[in-house]
Design goal:
The complex is a heterodimer.
Chain A (H helix, E strand, L loop, with lengths): L9 E5 L4 E3 L4 E14 L10 E15 L6 H5 L5 E7 L8 E15 L7 E8 L4 E4 L1
Antiparallel strand pairs in A: 1-2, 1-5, 3-4, 4-7, 5-6, 6-7, 6-8
Chain B lengths: L3 H11 L10 E3 L10 E11 L7 E12 L2 H15 L10 E16 L5 E14 L1
Parallel strand pairs in B: 1-2
Antiparallel strand pairs in B: 2-3, 3-5, 4-5
The chains are: A mainly beta, B alpha+beta.
Chain lengths: ~130, ~130
């Protein structure tokens, strides 16, 4: 086992009609699982206790926006439904693969005069997040 | 490591009828007994930015004019500024997305023969994407 960087990460946004490869221009991708909680503490309990409810997953992407082209923006347009496939170590056989059906929450831009333009997009998972391998 | 294509682009952008120095545009050092005025440019440094999988270079060039008077050097420095600041350079193998003037300098020197020369110039930041 060894530590690794995100440099080999592969991230694909798969739509019914096309697939957008977000790997080339990304800066960060955050995978954020969570689970709902219901408090189950009784009045005499010295510590709080919880019951778990539904799991949820969201993903945040940021990358460098490219000139001359609207393909990425259109693929990520607000409300677009697709499937995110993320390979933290690339797509070689047996490497881990995260798959998430998700809604795009739309492109956010940061237009800085003296720096590259950054594109960010959040994805809200819809249904089961699958932890597998390529 | 300098980028020959960037040096070529700088030379092409400055040499000719664009400045009072004409074709007297030299890399690193002017020839011995070069006739004033002239331009000298250095490839000072670059850094690979490594912020995405695409390779990007952030380069610093020091480009200055030498003249017989401060005014002559300053005039050519302004002409260089006009040819480079906020201009998109044609660099073979790269896309130039940022070229801007940064720190400016001036200096006077007296050579071994007693001739005074005056320098005016600046650092230029050039950013390239592959």
């Amino acid at each position: 086992m060894a530590e690794f960087t995100g440099s080999a990460l592969n991230v694909q946004w798969v739509l019914a009609a096309s697939t957008t490869d977000l790997s080339g221009d990304y800066r960060t991708v955050s995978w954020n699982p969570s689970i709902g909680m219901v408090e189950a503490t009784a009045g005499s309990d010295p510590f709080k206790s919880y019951l778990t409810t539904q799991k949820d997953t969201s993903v945040s992407y940021s990358g460098v926006f490219q000139t001359a082209g609207t393909g990425t923006e259109l693929a990520l347009i607000t409300g677009q439904y697709g499937t995110l496939i993320i390979g933290p170590e690339g797509t070689a056989a047996a490497k881990r693969k995260y798959t998430l059906p998700a809604y795009s929450q739309g492109c956010k831009f940061n237009f800085a005069y003296a720096d590259v333009v950054e594109l960010a997009c959040d994805f809200q998972g819809n249904g089961t997040a699958t932890y597998g391998t390529f | 490591m300098s980028i020959p294509a960037l040096n070529t682009a700088i030379y092409s952008q400055l040499s000719g009828t664009y400045t009072t120095a004409g074709t007297k545009v030299y890399y690193l050092q002017a020839p011995d007994a070069a006739v004033l005025p002239y331009i000298v440019f250095d490839y000072v440094a670059d850094v690979d930015e490594n912020y995405t999988a695409n390779r990007t270079k952030n380069c610093s060039m020091f480009i200055r004019a030498y003249g017989t008077t401060p005014a002559q050097a300053g005039t050519i420095d302004a002409q260089i500024d006009g040819r480079l600041h906020a201009v998109t350079l044609s660099v073979s193998g790269y896309t130039n997305f940022w070229t801007r003037r940064e720190n400016a300098y001036s200096l006077s020197e007296t050579d071994a023969s007693g001739r005074k020369t005056y320098m005016a110039g600046a650092d230029y930041r050039v950013r390239l994407d592959t």
